[in-house]
Amino acid sequence: MGNQVNELARGIIAGEEKALAKGLTFIENRKSGYRELLDSIYPEVRSCPIWGLTGAPGVGKSTITNYLVDSLANRSERIGVIAVDPTSPFSGGAILGDRVRMMDLAGREGIFIRSMASRGALGGLSPAIMDAVSLYQAFGVDRILVETVGVGQSETDIVSLADTVAVIMMPGTGDDVQTIKAGLLEIGDIFAVNKADLEGAETLAGLLQSMLSSRNGDEKWVPPVIKLVASQGQNLDTLLEKFLDHQKSLEKSGQKEKKEKMRNEMALKMHLQARFQDLYLGPLLGTEDWEKAIKSINRREKSPAYWAEKLISRSD
Amino acid sequence: MGNQVNELARGIIAGEEKALAKGLTFIENRKSGYRELLDSIYPEVRSCPIWGLTGAPGVGKSTITNYLVDSLANRSERIGVIAVDPTSPFSGGAILGDRVRMMDLAGREGIFIRSMASRGALGGLSPAIMDAVSLYQAFGVDRILVETVGVGQSETDIVSLADTVAVIMMPGTGDDVQTIKAGLLEIGDIFAVNKADLEGAETLAGLLQSMLSSRNGDEKWVPPVIKLVASQGQNLDTLLEKFLDHQKSLEKSGQKEKKEKMRNEMALKMHLQARFQDLYLGPLLGTEDWEKAIKSINRREKSPAYWAEKLISRSD
């Protein structure tokens, strides 16, 4: 095991594509030894900008991501892409694993794409996503793009992961004010209204603009609102510029470093939770103690709160 | 503290509305003593159907929930509503806390509404939501409705919470196939295409129908697809009927009990995690050990995986 992990780590650090792919799978499946792998590559992690794109399904995220990745690759950058998919509650795997949305880019020189499930076994942003970022950074990419589907939870998680977040919206999804209120204002560094040729695009963009102007004003960066017609390539260059502008602004203000520290704290918390799960929760499932607790809860004798206390003190 | 908790538990069990409201706040804020409260009311928890509604913002969930709650209340049922809101990544609170969507119903006899944040401090479905269900059930409601906003994560969580899940969709949100693929097929017991007077509704409903027909076939229940124009009250009665039908089907097949057991297992896991957080993770934050670990991670000396192992073995 140790040798295999060392070999893998060496390959990743040396920039071998096959090792990267294998390492990402290793990390995602939480195979034994993944902690050693992370530990081996960690000193070689090199900071790079992490960009995030989020929005509801169907707003055109894939088209936009394709453009960004393509443009950056044309500038001879090496790009790591992580496409975060909603997790199936049944299989536990990513649902869009078979997705075609990145087909155009896959296999191109300097472009590395991985689709990953959004959440860990017990909920929350999957720690594997954060570890995949480290792997890309040890392998040596110039930039990482993370695309998450969703309005609800995953899009709030992206804030702790990415330096710069673009929220993609589109007109005509009904109650626009509600959509906007649902946490997105706080999340985005850039707002894009895609399908701007559709009715309601002006209204949505205007609404966004006015809501953003009332956002907490002690920031240096005022999030721009951009109208796109991504399918026709319209204004995508402006979006790319805004990403680059925001990145410069972060570097200048020292926020980049601050964000990195926050990301590290988050990673440590996630690994502590994973550890708890592996060491205590996992081994507990199905034991006599566990079954006794479940039975008692089913009979409504004692509450889950009671049994959690009992079981955790027993494992000390 | 003990006395206050006892008093609260007594009030909830006696069906006092004020005690319920206070208890729900107690549970949501995780005030010290909330475990004792849960434990005190737990033997009085009475099973009742739990219905879930989920869908992206703007699809009309609120109108639909309003109708269902209104109809059931007119049948002299007591209804507990939990409106699950996306959590702000910054304030940690629910974002739509000020929402108006349930205004019509609030304060009506036999209708109890609580808006709650979707997630716990460390991600995942907030355990408080599950505990709120227990509180409602000890208080004595005939039915619980849980409404979650979101396509992504929260809607997969609803499966572990509700007996019956209705997925609400609408036409015109772009890439319908992608929308449908994003895990929703596996989640819904009932599918509703709202705003069925809009272009594309037929196509969406047809697509859903054909995709559902290829869903794993060893089930007794075939999820119906209903077309609604909720704003005009169109077909909402059919939706209510389907909810009642599914509930009967669950009771007949013994699935209701099975779902309850799964819910209990989930609740125990959540409480164990909360316990871990309170006992280990919380006290660790900001300590000398913690700061040392963060510094080492920031300097890329050792990985989060390494430090998680170190820190957790130290706390044993």
Structure commentary:
Two copies of one chain form a homodimer. The first copy, chain A, has a seven-stranded parallel β-sheet, sandwiched between helices. The longest helix of chain A has 30 residues, at 255-284. Chain A is 51% helix and 13% strand. Chain A has helices spanning 2-13, 17-28, 34-41, 61-74, 127-139, 154-161, 176-181, 184-187, 201-213, 236-253, 255-284, 288-298, 304-314; strands spanning 50-55, 79-85, 111-117, 143-149, 164-169, 190-193, 225-227. Chain A is built from 13 helices and seven strands. Chain A is α/β, with parallel strands linked by helices and 316 residues long. Chain A is globular. In chain A, helix 9 links the parallel strand 6 (190-193) and strand 7.
Question: How confident overall, as mean pLDDT of chain A?
Answer: 84
Named CATH architecture of the largest domain in chain A: 3-Layer(aba) Sandwich
Number of strands of chain A: 7
In CATH, the topology of the largest domain in chain A is named Rossmann fold
N/C terminus separation of chain A = 29 Å
User: Major beta sheet of chain A, specifics?
Assistant: 7 strands, parallel
Give a nutshell description of this structure.
The first copy, chain A, is an alpha/beta fold. Chain A is 51% helix and 13% strand.
